[in-house]
Amino acid sequence: MSNKQSITLTFIEDLKLLYSKALVSQKANDDQQALSYYSQALDQIESINGTIQDIDQLQYDVYLNICGLYMRQCNATVANVFIDKALQISYKLQEDKITKYLDKRSEVKILEGNYEGALVDLNKSIQIKLKIDKGEGLDIASSYFKIGKVYDNLGKYDDAVNIYKKSLKTQLSVLDDNHPSIAETYHNLGSVYEAQAKYDQAICMYEKSLKIHLLALGDNHPSIAKTYSNMGNIYLDQSRYDYALCMYKKSLKIILSVLGDHPATTFIYNNLGVIYNKQGKYDYAISTYEKSLKIQLSTHGDGHPDIATTYNNIGVVYYKLDKFDDAICMYKKSLKIYLATLGNNHPSIANTYLNMGELYTAQGKYDQAISMFEKSLKIQSSFLGDNHLSIGEIYNNIGVVYHKQGVYDYAILMYEKSLQIKLSVLGGNNHSIAMTYDNMGNLYQDQGEYDYALSTFDKSLKIKLSVLDYNHPSIAFTYSSMGIIYNNQGKYDCSISMLEKSLKINLLIFNDNHSKIANEYSYMAVVYTNQGKYDYAICMLEKSLKIQLSVLDSNHPNIATTYKILADIYLEQSKYDQAISMYEKSLEIQFSVASNNYPDIATTYCDMGLVYDSQGKYDEALSMYEKSLKIQLSVFGEDHFGIANVYLNIGKVYTAQSKYNYAISSYEKSLKIYLSVFGDNHSNVAAIYSNIGNIYLIQGKNDYAISMYEKSHKINLLANGENYNGIDKTYINMGLAYKNQGMYSYDDAISMYRKSLKFSTSMFGDNHLTIAATYINMGNIYADQVKYDDAMIMYEKSLKIQFSLFADNNPCFATTYISIGNVYANQGKYDDAIYMYGKSLKIWLFVFGDNHPDIADIYNNMGNIYQLQGKYNYAISMYRKSLKVNLSEFHDNHPSTANTYSNIGNVYANQGKYDDAISMYKKSIKIKLSVLSHNNPSIADTYNNIGKIYTDQEKYDYAFSMFEKTLKIQLSTLSHNHPSIADTYNSMGFIYSNQGKYDEAISFYERAATIIVNVQLKNNPNLAIIYENMAICYHQQNRYDDAIAMGQKSNNIRCSLQEVDIVHQISTNVIDQSPALQDKMLVQDKVTANLSSQQIQNQQTLNSSDNPSDNDGYSHIQQSHDQALKEKQYFKGRMQALQQRSCKNKVIQVMNIDPEFVNKSSIMRMFTQQRLVSLQHPTQIMDQPNKIVCLKVYEIKDRATYNLLQIWDDNIDEIIQLQYKNRINSHQTTKLMQELIHKDLSINDQRQITIIRSIIAYLRSTDTISTFSRTSTITLTDNNMFLQQFRDFFRRYYLSRLNKAADDS
Q1: Could you give the angle at which helices 641-656 and 618-636 cross, rounded to 10 degrees?
Q2: Per-residue pLDDT tens over the stretch 1120-1158
Q3: Is the entire prediction scored with pTM above 0.70?
Q4: Dist CA 1304 CA 1298 (whole Å)
Q5: How far apart are CA 234 and CA 237, in angstroms?
Q6: CA pair distance 349, 340, nearest whole angstrom
Q7: DSSP line for 332-380
Q8: How many Å is the Cα radius of gyration of the chain?
């Protein structure tokens, strides 16, 4: 051997030694030392001149190994430098050597995310190997193995499985069955099956791999740790977190015992962090990620991609905690490292963009979210093509954003793209496909397409049940989603069933203290709330809140959501202060975790607006809605359904303020958005029509209202089927519209309520709050029809349900007690009415304390009763209590305060204290003008009341001005054929009549009559009054034939209504409440001339059947009375009497002295032709078409009869006789009887009995009653008998007076 050869051999041996040392260091992960040895070797090689084949091969290997070192540091740029150097050396070597270069270059391309490029290199490499080894070598098996990994990364799982099987076949032909390389192939097959969600096959492959490794390597080798780790991944995918933890901990234990704090442990720590994150154990998650980060920083410094991955994982935890600022900080740190080490176009960067997009979605920053997703999509598409699962997931995420923006067409397009990719890659039975179905189901749900949503969730459920364990949390999610839809459909039992299935699964998977369990309790609370089971709902929420506060940060959004649901329940219960408190707690959390433009904050503002609206704090409500609107406009733009919802709520406030034009404008804005988003046949569109119908209902445009309700009903039927959620409320609204049309539509109203009842009973069973409310509505109809027994039956049914659902102090009872009290009031059972109002008051005081609007309403009701009883001081006291509450709750500028002032004005008016009344009315109207639309019907009512006082004061110009203002408002807000307008025309006609402007008066009376006829109320008592008013005008113009004709029309109407005269009302105990029937109580002594004998006979027959005990007296009196009225002279005198101021003054005097026994509306109509101002109840407001108009009438008793007869004797008869010089000598009798005006007819007042006896003795001594006095026996010892006999005696006296008046005429 020459000296040169010896030197060369020594040099080569030294190089090989350095190379061996470098390999040892590289294997020990001492990359710095390995790089040092490789550098020394390269320096020596470069010092040699010429080419030595062995040295070329060594230099080639060094370059490739240095490339591997930089790849491990994820430095693809430097790795490519050395791979290029290796390429230059490969040209000097044999063809088979280039395969090693191609394999290494494919690894660099994989690091860069260039899988297609890697696949090209690997295919070139295997072609060379097959050419040399004929497909039988281990090197070929290794190439198959690498190609399989590329297919795996490309999501081409079937191709990956086929290639791995080729690799396995080659390995099994060459190696022993228990060789570690075969275990590695089984391991990778398991990874592919895992990606395909074929978990059983994956576990099988991992177990085969594990068995080989345990035999070959023992139980404490890193490869075994890797298998345990991958098995843990499967259990993690299955949400079997306890199994996953067990696997990861086994893996970690091995690595720590073998390698210590080795970089390999960081992957385990990261996986443990993922589990803790999934379990909601966020502190544990952060702790394990920080362990991983500490090791990575000590090993790689602060710029390694693995560190970026850990930052990314920490960001995910912060995202789950809604610590969005911290999360975005982590994502940006991660992105910075990735961009520095991997370039701009790497899948890890795409994944970070994806995470940032999800965060921006959660923040409601949808434009930024879309931008991130598009960046991710661009990168992934460049590496993976258009048909990869990762691309499908990005489309899915973009769909979620469009979904949240309410851009449903784009959302469904994205979901369908995602679904198409997943179906083509995975087939039809994969969990990922089911998840896309879930998203599509949620979208259909938000569109109100509940049947489509259920169908889509059903597809999802079938897939999940076939590929997942039955107790998988994803299955629980689908059950929960279906439960929410059933809740929206009003199918509450189905909803609870689904939610209980979901809860059962989650309780098996998680402990009792997990956030998912809390969520289930919250969902169930919502359903119980809708069922009116508030105690159950609150119990569920308390369970939910207890869990959330124990496992979540105190500022977690889920806690905010629970506070919000609690607030919703308090709102349902009218516990407004508690509701506001809960919403404020929710809002505080939302502000702490999100920007001021976070959509959930907008939702909370909207909810608070609902509370203020319910309290009548309309300015505060509008302020909340405007804040909500501002946020949503900035986030969503102008065409989002959430914005439409806000416009809808604003419209409701304007409706409450009677700003109907503003309300309609808001509803139209809402409708425009709904139509653009949902199309014509959506439940939200139906809701707008329903609300517009409510405005028409308020305006008294009942036909228009019914038309709107029918539109709404038709859309809901198309969209949601025959039993859609809310159909009961639609029927109730239509029932109210029919009710407001008056007595002729009551049957239609009852029909609607029965339909509502049928639906509610089928949906909720017999004991539901909605059913109880429907019974109350039906009771109110029966009360209007004077069917008080039927009304009471309905109220009792309602009470029975309420007692089964609630404790004794629930507000529902108070509402029912008020309705019962109203019936008692209408029956004249005032003490019973006060008792019921008192029961209601006791409940409200218990629930709300002293200062609540409902308490003010009860004080108002009690004040009304006292006013009816003429106990004006008591009435004023109640109204002042009401006023005090209203001022404390609403301050001095609220409609309720205005109504109370109006009621006080009514009392003063009834007392004849006109100046005080005017003062109260002006206070009322000042408030109404400041808070309500100037066209509000309530303002018209107040003008009307003022006008009537001016009329009584004979200040006709002032009165006419008030009625003009009334009319202007009515014409702008009500149908032009509304009965209230007719009443105003009548009042204006009366003024012209009193001013002697009879043509003008007749013109207005004709307008009034036309309206009543047009609304198909031809037999309405008000029409009879108008005809009689016209008769008076014709009489004054000496147009007697016209006067008689009008009187005849009036009389015919009264006969058709089967009216009875005032004497018949002595025995009447049922008083009508409704506006259409109350005028039946008008006194028969207004009946005009030309009543035929047949009509009289028919009337007598009716009267006889109604009052069998009084046949002998009443029929004779009626006949004589009507005979007297036939005479033209008597009629003419009567018309003049009704024009005399003295008659009216006398009536007012009687009313003020003794109101509890006076039929006010009858007297006022008889002597002043004016409608008496009605007292107000919560649902009975004078002349407001959206309320039940109730003219209070009083039970006519004997005392009242006496008063009326006295006035008749003292005025009409006197004026008649003065006019025709045929005076009846009754002055002394009248004077004595006048003393009775100030007394009640009571057996307990001995003094008045003495007076009565004196009068009887006087009357017997006169000629006036000599014809029957000797046959009349009065028992003077027994008071009860005495009073009964006196009644009979007085009827006979009255009969004689009528007969004498007729004879004298």
Answers
A1: 160
A2: 334 444 444 444 544 544 444 444 444 333 333 333 333
A3: no
A4: 10
A5: 5
A6: 11
A7: HHHHHHHHHHH-SS-HHHHHHHHHHHHHHHHHT-HHHHHHHHHHHHHHH
A8: 46
